[in-house]
Amino acid sequence: MMKQALMIVDMQEAFFNHSQNFLYQSDLVVSNINGLIEQARQKDIPVIFIQHTTQDEQDEFFEGSEDWQLHKNLLRSPADKVIQKTRWDAFYQTELLDYLKANGIEQLIIAGAQTEFCLDTTIRAAYSLGFQNNILYKNTQSTISSAILKADEIIRHHEGIWNNRFLTIKEYGE
């Protein structure tokens, strides 16, 4: 069996503190991500939190701000790895790839936000970097509605593109 890591992307307070940023089905997504965290701990699978970070004081992800913090309802442990990123790609100029290689990780279980931005970019980058057996469980990732598409449409669209190409999508609980 491949050595796995659970990677949770950008589940930060900005998506829970402001109504215009509320993630679609946020309670379900947080609950399911916590379920993945509990399973990872039982199986001794490392948990990695990716945290979007900027130095722009006007930005919601300004380092150290309340909105920048990882969501308070996530089941975090001091043993979890936290990697800050400054771009949509969690691998871009971060220690993520080195950490995965150093720990012999071959397969990522990916969850988090936002579907069409950091999640999509990171999923595709992971595939291009050789992580070609990754898994995403339904209802463990989310986004907000745009001017063009509703959140559930964005999620369905991206999952349709990702599945059996960039990763395998499974029903939560499988």
Short key terms for the protein model shown above:
Isochorismatase-like_hydrls; about 30% helix; five-stranded parallel sheet; two-stranded parallel sheet; 5 helices; alpha/beta; hydrolase; about 170 residues; Isochorismatase-like_dom; globular; Isochorismatase-like_sf; hydrolase activity; 7 strands; Rossmann fold
Can you characterise this structure?
The protein is globular. The protein is α/β, with parallel strands linked by helices and 174 residues long. The longest helix has 17 residues, at 26-42. The chain has helices spanning 14-17, 26-42, 96-102, 115-128, 151-162, and strands at residues 4-9, 47-52, 81-85, 107-113, 135-137, 141-142, 168-170. The mean pLDDT is 97. It has a single domain, classed as Rossmann fold. It has five helices and seven strands, in the order E-H-H-E-E-H-E-H-E-E-H-E. The chain starts with a strand and ends with a strand. The strands form two sheets. A five-stranded parallel sheet has the order 3-2-1-4-6, with helices on both faces. It has a two-stranded parallel ribbon with strand order 5-7. Helices cover 31% and strands 18% of the residues. Pfam families: Isochorismatase. Residues 5-135 form the Isochorismatase-like domain. InterPro entries: Isochorismatase-like_dom (IPR000868), Isochorismatase-like_hydrls (IPR050272), Isochorismatase-like_sf (IPR036380). One of its GO terms (molecular function) is hydrolase activity. Belongs to the isochorismatase family.
